[in-house]
Predict the structure.
Amino acid sequence: MTMRRLINLKRVEARRIYLTYFIVILAYVICQTMSSTKILSSTMRGMLVPICAYMVMSISLNLVVGISGELSLGHAGFMSVGAFSGVAAAILMQGFIPFAPVRLALAMIIAAIFAAAAGFLIGIPVLRLKGDYLAIVTLAFGEIIKSILNNFYLGVDSGGLQFSMLSDTTRLLAGGKLIIRGPMGISGIQKIATFPAGFILVMISLMIVFNLVNSRSGRAFMAIRDDRIAAESIGLDITKYKMTAFVMSAAMAGAAGALFAMNYSTIVANKFDFNTSILILVFVVLGGQGNMLGGIIAAAALTILPEKLRQFSDYRMLLYAIILIITMLGTNNQEIRNFFAGLNPFRRKEHEEEAA
Amino acid sequence: MKSKTKYIQVPSKSILPDRDIAREPVLECINLGITLGGIKAVDNFNLTIGRTEIAGLIGPNGAGKTTVFNLLTKVYQPTTGTILLNGKDTHGMTTTQINKAGIARTFQNIRLFKNLSVVDNVKAAMNNEMRYNMLSAILRLPNYRREEVAAHRRALKLLSIFDMQDMADVRAGSLPYGAQRRLEIVRALATNPSLLLLDEPAAGMNPSETADLMDNIRKVHEMFQIAIVLIEHDMSLVMNICEGICVLNFGQIIAKGTPEEIQANPAVIEAYLGRRKEA
């Protein structure tokens, strides 16, 4: 029997993990030097933090879609929960934590906690569903979060925090300040998000996901994804692990949202709509489900692309769509894949093993 | 023969020393039944499995054998009757809880975690005996390393029973068919069951593979001293390793006994071959 050489999965995966860390660090070093030596244009410099935030979103959604196999269409909702809670926290902390990086870190942690809480609450009804139904309901919850934040008013005065829904009835005392103004969102945000902070967040997210995948929880996520009935038969708590993955993912999305928001002076809930959710899903699908590196590269490429296509003005989104379609077709074409695999000296051997 | 408590008196081909397997049974089914779509798929099913017994569940296609396994593992909740596992009522338990209580199974149509490596399939089944939390995993704390190393060692040891330790890092879905069936048994064993249910373990195997499988089942039985119930169509396997056999037809038990008794039972012959035409 011409026995097909079986691929050593452990070796392939370990190599992929180190390659991912290496490429992220390399990209950071290059961008940082280019940015400090002013080679990078100012528009590109302004995009570094959003790119980092989208990378974290891509990693976070990949945990749900790629690793635990549930399609979530409302991920921008968690990003907005994180953005609003993180920015509000940062504004409240302005008085007593003058050092911006510490304030940013604390704001991201608070954002992650709020988004995780939202993920938990939404997870209770949503994770009872499967497949398409789950996707539709997460979409609905994404919209619900957007509507709530569009109608949410939060102010602070000497009496503490005041909030109201639908219209501003907070009745702040003199000297009080309205932080979240419903559809107007938050304005006057101090831009404390920096590229190094974004880089650190990407690295932490990668570490969380990679280390989780190689642990009992990660194996449980993937086991449930591959075969739910068999997973039950070996005593895995399906609900517990689905919830864990969903909440972890929401927490990371929240931190990314806070980072994203603190790169702008104004933030509104409408920024985190269905289109943003789909954009994040496109990162994951384009990069390959479960493939963190692919998702990161897709996030960077698809954030830069619309800017680079600006010169084509009216045809910008048309070209964007065409490039997306060609890339999707290309990455799924076996011949094109073989061609690229042949170029890579590390993968060539493994590729030949597979073909033999 | 009174089938209520004693079902097998004499261990026939056991490799374990003589023992009274009728004492302290691991599993007792009392008047078990389920109605699926208006049909009594299993009805009035009474069976007792001894603590270290190897029993066979046979019958023609559609007799309800796999349904019995699904009832035991609570994939279906029985409409009537009681299942006692180690003397405790399993009423209202979920599949997950049943596994924690001690029943592990394999599936007729193989259900592996295809995208995980072979060793990870086994380690996934050890999830409930590992104690470290997610924080230890994310920060790679010492207890994570210690437990992972121990689990990996035990997984390799279990795989080596079936001679699969060399395939540990291969993707489970790319294994040859026979190896996939064996991996399912290893995965079930990794949950430390007191009762192992094998659903057609020899399906699709050639005679020499079946002979190996038979040796392996005996080895597992001897090493872990657990009860094993198997559904099988390969009569050479059933007659060779089972100490007791239960024959199902149309959801009803038509015979119980030792392999010799079953082979001579006219009702069984009729179920498999049909009634002799009266001249």
Q: What stands out?
A: Residues 142-161 of chain B form the longest helix (20 residues). The domain at 1-102+193-279 of chain B is CATH 3.40.50.300 (Rossmann fold). The radius of gyration of chain B is 20 Å.
